[in-house]
Amino acid sequence: MSSSTGGRSAATIRVAAPAKINLLLHVGERRPDGFHELQSLIGFTEAGDQLEISSSAELSLAVRGPFASALPSSDDNLVLKAARALRQQSRRTDGAAIVLTKNLPVASGIGGGSADAGAALRGLDRLWDLNLSQQQLLKLAAELGSDVPVCLLSRPCWVEGRGEALSELPPLPRMPVVLVNPGVAVSTSAVFGLLNARSGTARSRPAKPLESLWDVIGYLGDAGNDLEAPACELAPAIQEVLNAFDREPGCALAAMSGSGATCFALFHDPDFAEGAASRIAQDHRSWWVSLTRFAGPAIGDPNEE
Ligand code: C5P
Question: Which CATH class is domain 2-168?
Answer without folding.
Answer: alpha beta
